[in-house]
Structure formats: structure tokens, C-alpha cells
Structure prediction request, 435 residues.
Amino acid sequence: MSRWDENRAKRMKWWHDAKFGMFVHWGLYSHYGKGEQVVVRDHMPLEEYTSLADEFKPNEGWADRLAEQAVRSGAKYVVLTTRHHDGYCLWDTTTDEFNAAKTGPGRDLIAEYVEALRKRDLRVGFYYSLPNWRWHGWWDTERYAHELPLIRQEVHDQVEELMTNYGLVDILWYDIPQPPGARSPGSFGFSPNPAASSAAEFYESERLNARVRELQPGILINNRSGLPEDFGTPEQHVTPEEGGRAWESCMTINFAPNWGCVHRSVADKTPGQILYHFVQAVRIGGNFLFNVGPDGQGEVIDRDGAALRLIGDWLKRNGEAIYGTAPGKIYETPGQGACYHYGMFTEKGTTGYLTLFYYPKEFLVISKIGGEVRSAEILGTGQKLEVEPMKNRRWRISGLPEEMPDELAAVVKIEFAEPPYLIHWDNAEWLDGGL
Ligand code: GLC
Prediction:
């Protein structure tokens, strides 16, 4: 391992152990309750959108309540949209009057956010959108070519402020690795005319991120400035990065493509589905960044709050199966793997945790996994289970209570005689019980 990789592994240790973060899409757009891209999706003239800024009046104490929800949900870090594609800055920036301190709120909302997180030992993440759709030059790179250097400079200046004025920042989460003039989300019908061949080239991301690391040596940076940096960001799906790189799946509750507040959504994932994606990410080495979209006052909406509470309660009972685990040898590929018809294994040394995504009657069978099973119990209740060897190096684990011992998914904690591994075989003898 190179010195740089060693240093990265050290910087990322807390993040790998943390597994679970809360993503927060919140800004001026939250007032409408139509997602975070309403300006471009509804094709609103700027005047119509920006006139809203004086109506944006977040409640006092929003940040404390948000941070409280994060703690309750078991999240160890939070990533908040400091600016989204509308360019509205939640902090008191000197670069643009269109910010929270100089419009409706009259306060630096990022200062409030950071303080609320720190009080609770939550790690601080800043989402930052490279696009600012309010520049004409973002859309028309030829006619407004003179704006291009200003667009780049604005990004450098704003990132500099964010990295300087709020103490320790743990994560910088860029969005949209595209240069001005490229087709961006929501811009259907738009004829692209990119200002550069890549975001990294246009924004001079290498210089930008070198400065970030100078100001915040411990920071983790995602891959959306057009450079790989510390971790990948599969969006709305759980897929590991190539080459063993670190990654984090970000996901909304709703299936519809909104990250900002939406009202009365009818196509939402169930708590079981959310947990399924979460455990799926963790078992193959990823983190899970679960999104909420607070309302215009900054309050987490009931739907999101209910989901956070359920996950948090589950983690209280079963967190041992998540935090600090690391993929071992049970899975050799991200594909299904042994015992997948019961659920998913997470691993810590000689212990395997099987989160049951269906609850079997009376007993379950551990197959295709070695070495010897020493003991098993229900993680959430500590109830001991019986373990008996069976043919084909299988283990029957019985004594499961008739009532499912968890309101979401029960976890069976299994002690092996050695770190568990996948059993390989290359003949048909298992049909005769001779494995
Ligand atoms: C997509 C969306 C953007 C959102 C982001 C979160 O890029 O277009 O609005 O902030 O996903 O990952």
C-alpha cells in the first residue's frame, strides 16, 4: 500500500465503521414541496423563483430537531445541501446575495447546522452542487462565454468559504460532474454545448480539491467533481465500485426522482425495502446514505420521520450486526451467496450476523458456509438457539420463537470456530449427503 493509500485508509476508518449517514435535501425549493429541481422542471423564469427567497422562513431550532432525528435513526453523519443546482446558498456567502443570511431566513443556516451536529457528535457533511443554474452561461456557453471564468471562480470561492468558516468538515459531497452547457438532470429538450470535455477540466478540480485538503486535511471527498477522490456514489442502487474502492449508496424513500420535499408521495419504499437496501450495501462493504427532504420550515416530514424512527429502533436492537462490520469470506461476489433465501450475512471476525428477510418456521439451515458453528442466538433478545450438525456440513439452527422477535427483521448471531468462509465443491456427492 502506498503512503497515500495508507493515509486514506486512516482517514476513512470512522466512515467505514459508521455505515449509515443521513442525506438532507433542503433549500428554497422545499417551500414548494415539488422536489429539489422545481426551477428547471417547471421551467420557471428566474424572477418567479428568486422572489420566493424572502418567503423562506425556517423555524428556529430546525437544525437541532434535524440532528436529533439523525441521532435517533442511528446515522453517524449527516450530509446537507449547502447549495443545490438553484445556486441558493444556505450560508452567509460574500459571493452571492442569493443566500440565507441576506434573504428571508436572515441567518447563516450552515452555522446552525454545524453547531447542532457537533453538539451530538455527528460527523459533518457538506453537499455542494457544482452547477448553479442561475448563470446564463450555464445554459448558453457561447453567447455568455464571458461568464464561464466567473462560474468557475464562484465555485472555488464558495468551497473556500465552506472549508474555512465552519471548523472541521468531515465530508465534501460534490454533485453533478458536468461542465456548463452539458445536459443536466431535468433539462429535457435542451441542446447541450459543453464548455469543456469534463467537469474536472472545467472546474480545475485537481487544484480545487488540493486546496480543500490543505484547509481540511482529514476530509473525505466524493467522486462527483469529476475525479475519483475518496469514494464512489452509486445513486438509487446498491453497486460496489470497481477495484475495491470505497463507495456509498445514496437513496430516497420515494421511487419518483425527487430528493427535496414532496407532499403525498404514493410510490414509497416500505421500511423492509429500505432495510434490505441498507443491509445489502453493508454486507458487500458499502455505506448507506439515506435521504430526507424536510419542509420549507426545516422540519422532517412525517413520512421520513417514521422511516428514520423504524431504522433507528432496529439499529438499537441490532446495530452490532451493522456498525464496525466488514465483508469477510462468506461472499466472493456481490451476487446472492449462501443462505440468501433467508437473508444476508454481515461479518465481524468469527461472528456472522444473518439478518432474516423472511422469518422461517421453527428452524433454519446454514449451508455452504464453513467452519464449524459453535453457537447461535437471536441478537435483539439474546435468546439462545439450538445448533445441530447435519449432513453436507450443514447446521440446523432451531428454537426460533413462533412470533417474529423483531418488528422489522430479526437477526441471528452465529459464532463460528473460525472466520466463516464459503464452501466450494466440484462434484455431485452432495446429492448423496457426502459433502
Ligand atoms: C441527482 C439529482 C440531484 C440530487 C442528487 C443526489 O444528481 O439530480 O438533484 O441532489 O442526485 O445524489
